[in-house]
Amino acid sequence: xxxxxxxxxxxIAIEEANKxxxxxxxxxxxxxxxxxxIIARAHNLRESEQRAIAHAELLAIDEACKKLGTWRLTGTxxxxxxxxxxxxxGAIVLSRVDRVVFGAFDPKGGCVGTxxxxxxxxxxxxxxxxxxxxxxxxxSFLLSNFFKKxxxxxKQQKETECKxxxx
Length: 167
Fold this sequence. Notes:
By secondary structure, the protein is of the alpha/beta class. 45% of the residues lie in helices and 17% in strands. It has helices spanning 3-22, 46-49, 56-68, 86-94, 136-164; strands spanning 29-34, 37-43, 76-82, 99-104, 129-131. Strands 2-1-3-4-5 form a 5-stranded mixed β-sheet. Helix 1 (3-22) runs parallel beside helix 5. It is elongated, with a radius of gyration of 17 Å. The N and C termini lie far apart (57 Å).
């Protein structure tokens, strides 16, 4: 894959992240590509479905497995806007995704290089190639802007509550 390809598919992952944000979800999107074709795409649904495992990466992996008719996703690249967490990194290893490309680093939960690197730990029977920081600024802005708006809404709610019932 070229840098152009990586940016192209990351932009599609960003479109997925925007879908998540439009429904009040943390804006994380994922796309899985095999042989230059998108075989799965997803965005976070954890809040709307109240399911701990409804992360963009897991939903995309599940969709790709169904489409290919196999749990082995060899020959695929996963593009995701945020560095995968331990749960998603584990799914990447166990589903045999060959390559992971992510945008923003996750200092609190990233397990593809930040806190640890589960997808390249040679104690597992599969190791994925990793490329980080693709369209990092765009991906980071999506997240920081989302949480900034969320904090502002919570502050306004608290102020409204205090007006109606003195705090």
